[in-house]
Design goal:
Layout (H helix, E strand, L loop, with lengths): L1 E6 L5 H12 L16 H21 L7 E8 L3 E8 L23 H8 L2 E5 L7 E8 L6
Antiparallel strand pairs: 1-2, 2-3, 3-5, 4-5
Helix pairs in contact: 1-2, 2-3
Length: 146
């Protein structure tokens, strides 16, 4: 398990994304792995989903509040990665977020859609009574996705 704690501000996003990108390279690593051929579709999906999750924590959870911390846990296995993003900002109901109209090319509202599209599992638990909001995302490495 890898733990990273950064301020929940967009200026720290690149640092957090780099950590997630490095962790992705550990999934399915090995000289005999098909990932050694250089296709990074898995990495791109995970990094895109995480970037959107971090953006949401920084832009929405701490909106109109003092910047708090974002805790990131990376659980790496041979064939999957699980990422937990925790914050103590405002919570939300992901089921109340409408699907974007992709034909209209919206400028916002795509974060949750991208996260759900690129990850195999996405679970959000709103915090209460001092407990943090926790977004858990899991992506499995597939044979067709080296």
């Amino acid at each position: 398990m890898i733990h990273l704690r950064v301020p929940g501000a967009l200026r720290y996003r690149d640092l957090a994304v780099r950590a997630v990108g490095a962790a992705c390279k550990l999934v399915g690593a090995g000289e005999e792995s098909p990932r050694a051929r250089g296709d990074r579709t898995f990495d791109h999906h995970v990094i895109s989903a995480f970037s959107e999750a971090f953006n949401n924590a920084a832009e929405h959870a701490y909106q109109d509040r003092p910047v708090g911390e974002v805790d990131i846990e990376l659980d790496i296995a041979t064939d999957e990665i699980t990422i937990r993003v925790s914050d103590h900002g405002a919570s939300f109901d992901p089921d109340a977020v409408p699907s974007p109209d992709l034909d209209a090319l919206p400028e916002s509202g795509l974060g949750l859609f991208i996260t759900r599209s690129f990850m195999d599992e996405v679970d959000y638990r709103p915090g209460s009574n001092g407990a943090p909001n926790v977004l858990t995302m899991r992506k499995r490495l597939r044979d067709d996705e080296p």
